[in-house]
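User: Okay, second chain of the day. Same drill as before: sequence in, structure tokens out.
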Amino acid sequence: MEGCKHELEISIPAEAVEAETLKVTKTFQDRAKLPGFRPGKAPASLVRRNFAGDIRQQVLEQLVPRFFDAQAKEENLRVVGTPGISDVHFHDGEPLRFKAHFEVFPEFEPAEYKGVEIPYRQPEVTGEDVLKRVEELRESKATYVNEDPRPLQDGDYAVISLESLAGADAPIKSDEVVVLIAGPETLDGFTENLRGASPGDDKEFDVVYPADYGQEKLSGKTIRFHVVVKGLRRKELPEVNDDFAQDLGDFRDMDELKEALRKSILAQREAEAQREAKDKLVDKLVDANDFPVPEKFVEKQIENRVEQRLRSLAQQGVDPRSFNLDWEKIKEAQRAAAVREVKASLILGKVAEREAIGVTNDEVDREVQRIAQQNREPVTTVRKKLSEDGTMDRIASHIQTEKTLNFLFDKATKTAPETESNPA
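Assistant: Same drill. Structure tokens below.
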């Protein structure tokens, strides 16, 4: 049939149907409680007549999957999901006939996947990058010292309490918020209205949140606040010296710290650059391979994408139920991306099969240990939990995918990104 859809017409011999019917009838006979008979002593003919519907259903449940699986195996069909059954012909003394509708894994020969051209530049780390990271660490170790009361000025850290009076969907209240006057992350409304204020002052003013503000529940809103200035603080940064390095970890001096930072920055940039290159590589493979994909896989991927979006909204404090959403349109909008993602997964699986890229027990064990350490739970407890909920299979699949991507990246032909290419 069309795409990955298949249909089988299956006929089960009457002898097999009768044998299964007798077996099922016997189980009912052993348990049946009929008037005038002790349990298990009622005649089979009477049991068969009284429980005809239940017996028929159990015979179908036993025979249909068994004969379908045998037929699919005989025809080398890799079935996706559970088949739909229709046109059931089930009469005493006759073969049991039915039609099974289902999807199969697509069979395709992958296009050439070695030597795929991808833009990639080996990342570099400059001394300036390292110094910037040192400053970030220095900022993280900053202390804030209370100062004597005076009017607030740019660069001061104001300690305030605030409460929303109007404009917010839900009340906003906090007893202590630290605001950097004229800081790059400070909204103009706070800076302009707090500049010149002194500890003990209380004010009411409006704050306009930009449309692209990080919290959707505040973006684009104008909120009126009642603010009390409780104090001001001065930020003190530690000196950058060997003591600073030793305070951060197992480093003898600043040179060791800087080298460790250089390696860390390089590893991070390599991971980001390779991930971007691998995404482009997979896009090229998807474009180069034209084959149908099972609709069940696409539907599942659409569900995953929608669920991820809902979780993202929830984390931002947005309740999707507060919107009148057309879920069918939302799902349809995700279809094209879902189809590409399913194709990518099937292509990577085919490459892994061709190149014998597998997963070892040690690799899975290391990931389980990492999860256990992250969750601060015993390894045995985590392993049992992951095995019971099916996560172990997903872990192995993820490891195989990453190994396959690494293989493809190693075999790829790396070219200079377009912005760096020399027109000459």
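DSSP finds twelve helices and ten strands in the chain.

User: Thanks, on to the next one.
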